[in-house]
Amino acid sequence: MNSLPAGDRGAGGAMNQTFQNSAQVLSIGIFFTLMIVGLAATLPSSLTAGLVAHGVPPATAAHVAHLPPVSVLFAAFLGYDPVKTLIGPHVLSHLSAANAAALAHRGFFPNLIAGPFESGLHKAFAFAICACLLAAVMSWSRGARVVAPVRGLAEAAETDII
Fold it and tell me: What ranges do the domains of the chain cover?
Protein backbone atom coordinates (compact mmCIF):
# COMPACT_ATOMS: atom_id res chain seq x y z
CA MET A 1 0.00 0.00 0.00
CA ASN A 2 2.99 2.29 0.48
CA SER A 3 3.58 2.38 -3.27
CA LEU A 4 0.21 4.09 -3.81
CA PRO A 5 -0.41 7.77 -3.26
CA ALA A 6 -2.34 8.40 -0.05
CA GLY A 7 -5.53 9.33 -1.92
CA ASP A 8 -5.57 6.03 -3.84
CA ARG A 9 -4.95 3.64 -0.95
CA GLY A 10 -8.65 2.99 -0.31
CA ALA A 11 -9.21 1.91 -3.91
CA GLY A 12 -6.00 -0.12 -3.83
CA GLY A 13 -7.08 -1.89 -0.66
CA ALA A 14 -10.49 -2.67 -2.16
CA MET A 15 -8.89 -4.11 -5.31
CA ASN A 16 -6.52 -6.17 -3.18
CA GLN A 17 -9.41 -7.62 -1.16
CA THR A 18 -11.43 -8.35 -4.32
CA PHE A 19 -8.53 -10.29 -5.82
CA GLN A 20 -8.00 -12.21 -2.57
CA ASN A 21 -11.69 -13.19 -2.37
CA SER A 22 -11.69 -14.27 -6.03
CA ALA A 23 -8.53 -16.31 -5.51
CA GLN A 24 -10.05 -18.12 -2.51
CA VAL A 25 -13.11 -19.16 -4.53
CA LEU A 26 -10.93 -20.24 -7.45
CA SER A 27 -8.58 -22.22 -5.20
CA ILE A 28 -11.50 -24.14 -3.65
CA GLY A 29 -12.67 -25.07 -7.14
CA ILE A 30 -9.18 -26.18 -8.16
CA PHE A 31 -8.69 -28.12 -4.91
CA PHE A 32 -11.93 -30.10 -5.29
CA THR A 33 -11.32 -30.68 -9.00
CA LEU A 34 -7.93 -32.19 -8.22
CA MET A 35 -9.47 -34.25 -5.41
CA ILE A 36 -12.04 -35.66 -7.84
CA VAL A 37 -9.35 -36.37 -10.45
CA GLY A 38 -7.32 -38.26 -7.84
CA LEU A 39 -10.37 -40.19 -6.68
CA ALA A 40 -11.48 -41.04 -10.21
CA ALA A 41 -8.07 -42.49 -11.04
CA THR A 42 -7.94 -45.08 -8.24
CA LEU A 43 -11.43 -45.34 -6.71
CA PRO A 44 -13.02 -47.83 -9.16
CA SER A 45 -10.32 -50.46 -8.66
CA SER A 46 -10.29 -49.95 -4.89
CA LEU A 47 -14.07 -50.23 -4.57
CA THR A 48 -14.26 -53.25 -6.87
CA ALA A 49 -11.46 -55.10 -5.07
CA GLY A 50 -12.85 -54.32 -1.61
CA LEU A 51 -16.39 -55.36 -2.43
CA VAL A 52 -15.43 -58.53 -4.33
CA ALA A 53 -13.14 -59.52 -1.45
CA HIS A 54 -16.22 -59.53 0.80
CA GLY A 55 -18.35 -61.70 -1.47
CA VAL A 56 -20.18 -59.07 -3.55
CA PRO A 57 -20.72 -60.34 -7.12
CA PRO A 58 -18.22 -58.77 -9.57
CA ALA A 59 -20.98 -57.26 -11.73
CA THR A 60 -22.53 -55.48 -8.74
CA ALA A 61 -19.11 -54.37 -7.49
CA ALA A 62 -18.22 -53.00 -10.95
CA HIS A 63 -21.53 -51.11 -11.10
CA VAL A 64 -20.93 -49.53 -7.68
CA ALA A 65 -17.31 -48.73 -8.55
CA HIS A 66 -18.27 -46.73 -11.62
CA LEU A 67 -20.56 -44.30 -9.82
CA PRO A 68 -19.41 -40.66 -9.88
CA PRO A 69 -16.52 -40.04 -7.46
CA VAL A 70 -18.15 -36.76 -6.36
CA SER A 71 -20.90 -38.73 -4.63
CA VAL A 72 -18.33 -40.85 -2.79
CA LEU A 73 -16.37 -37.76 -1.73
CA PHE A 74 -19.41 -35.99 -0.30
CA ALA A 75 -20.73 -39.16 1.30
CA ALA A 76 -17.40 -39.39 3.13
CA PHE A 77 -17.49 -35.71 4.12
CA LEU A 78 -21.04 -36.03 5.43
CA GLY A 79 -20.27 -39.22 7.35
CA TYR A 80 -22.68 -41.29 5.29
CA ASP A 81 -21.88 -44.94 4.56
CA PRO A 82 -23.50 -45.75 1.19
CA VAL A 83 -22.29 -49.36 0.84
CA LYS A 84 -25.48 -51.03 2.12
CA THR A 85 -27.63 -48.81 -0.09
CA LEU A 86 -25.46 -49.20 -3.19
CA ILE A 87 -25.20 -52.98 -3.17
CA GLY A 88 -28.79 -53.39 -2.04
CA PRO A 89 -30.53 -55.70 0.42
CA HIS A 90 -30.91 -58.46 -2.18
CA VAL A 91 -27.09 -58.79 -2.43
CA LEU A 92 -26.57 -58.47 1.33
CA SER A 93 -29.01 -61.27 2.00
CA HIS A 94 -26.99 -63.70 -0.15
CA LEU A 95 -23.67 -62.95 1.61
CA SER A 96 -22.28 -64.81 4.59
CA ALA A 97 -22.96 -63.28 7.97
CA ALA A 98 -19.29 -62.33 8.36
CA ASN A 99 -19.15 -60.58 4.97
CA ALA A 100 -22.47 -58.80 5.55
CA ALA A 101 -21.25 -57.62 8.95
CA ALA A 102 -17.95 -56.44 7.45
CA LEU A 103 -19.75 -54.45 4.73
CA ALA A 104 -22.14 -52.93 7.28
CA HIS A 105 -19.32 -52.03 9.69
CA ARG A 106 -18.83 -48.32 10.24
CA GLY A 107 -15.15 -48.42 9.29
CA PHE A 108 -15.48 -50.40 6.05
CA PHE A 109 -16.34 -47.53 3.69
CA PRO A 110 -13.80 -45.03 5.10
CA ASN A 111 -11.03 -47.65 4.97
CA LEU A 112 -12.05 -48.61 1.44
CA ILE A 113 -11.76 -45.06 0.08
CA ALA A 114 -8.74 -44.01 2.15
CA GLY A 115 -6.20 -44.88 -0.57
CA PRO A 116 -8.00 -43.05 -3.39
CA PHE A 117 -8.69 -40.11 -1.08
CA GLU A 118 -4.99 -39.93 -0.23
CA SER A 119 -4.18 -39.96 -3.94
CA GLY A 120 -6.50 -37.00 -4.48
CA LEU A 121 -4.98 -35.12 -1.56
CA HIS A 122 -1.49 -35.68 -2.95
CA LYS A 123 -2.54 -34.19 -6.29
CA ALA A 124 -4.18 -31.18 -4.64
CA PHE A 125 -1.27 -30.50 -2.30
CA ALA A 126 1.30 -30.95 -5.08
CA PHE A 127 -0.54 -28.26 -7.03
CA ALA A 128 -0.62 -26.01 -3.95
CA ILE A 129 3.12 -26.43 -3.42
CA CYS A 130 3.83 -25.59 -7.07
CA ALA A 131 1.55 -22.52 -6.88
CA CYS A 132 3.28 -21.31 -3.69
CA LEU A 133 6.74 -21.80 -5.21
CA LEU A 134 5.68 -19.91 -8.34
CA ALA A 135 4.28 -17.09 -6.20
CA ALA A 136 7.51 -16.94 -4.18
CA VAL A 137 9.62 -16.71 -7.34
CA MET A 138 7.36 -14.01 -8.77
CA SER A 139 7.47 -12.07 -5.50
CA TRP A 140 11.24 -12.36 -5.29
CA SER A 141 11.73 -11.17 -8.86
CA ARG A 142 9.34 -8.20 -8.78
CA GLY A 143 12.07 -5.62 -8.28
CA ALA A 144 12.85 -2.91 -5.78
CA ARG A 145 10.30 -1.61 -3.33
CA VAL A 146 8.68 1.67 -4.34
CA VAL A 147 7.34 4.03 -1.72
CA ALA A 148 5.07 6.90 -2.75
CA PRO A 149 6.29 10.29 -1.55
CA VAL A 150 4.33 11.77 1.33
CA ARG A 151 3.34 15.38 0.91
CA GLY A 152 3.99 17.69 3.80
CA LEU A 153 1.15 19.56 5.51
CA ALA A 154 2.18 22.92 4.10
CA GLU A 155 2.38 21.56 0.55
CA ALA A 156 -0.99 19.81 0.92
CA ALA A 157 -2.59 23.01 2.26
CA GLU A 158 -1.27 25.07 -0.68
CA THR A 159 -2.47 22.69 -3.40
CA ASP A 160 -5.80 21.65 -1.86
CA ILE A 161 -7.14 25.12 -1.05
CA ILE A 162 -8.60 26.97 -3.98
Answer: 6-142
